[in-house]
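Tutorial handout. Part one gives the primary structure; part two gives the three-dimensional structure as C-alpha cells.
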Amino acid sequence: MSGAVKKVSLVSSIIATVKPNLQTFVKYAKVELTPPKLSDLPEIKNEISKMIQTARTGRWKNITVKVSL
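Part two.
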C-alpha cells in the first residue's frame, strides 16, 4: 500500500512542479504562436524582399551575428 501512496505523492509533486511552467508556456504561446493577420502581410512581404535582395547582392557575407537585417 505504501508503494501506491509514494506513486500518488510523486505524481502530485510532479504536477505541482510542472503547472507554473505550463502556465507560463501557454501565456506566451497564445501571443507568439498566433497566425499572422492580414495587416501583417505587407511587412512580411517587405522582409522577404529584403532577404532576397541580401542574398542576391552578397551582403549576407558581411553581416555579423548581432546585426539584424
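Part three, for discussion. The longest helix spans residues 2-32. The CA atoms of residues 59 and 65 lie 13 Å apart.
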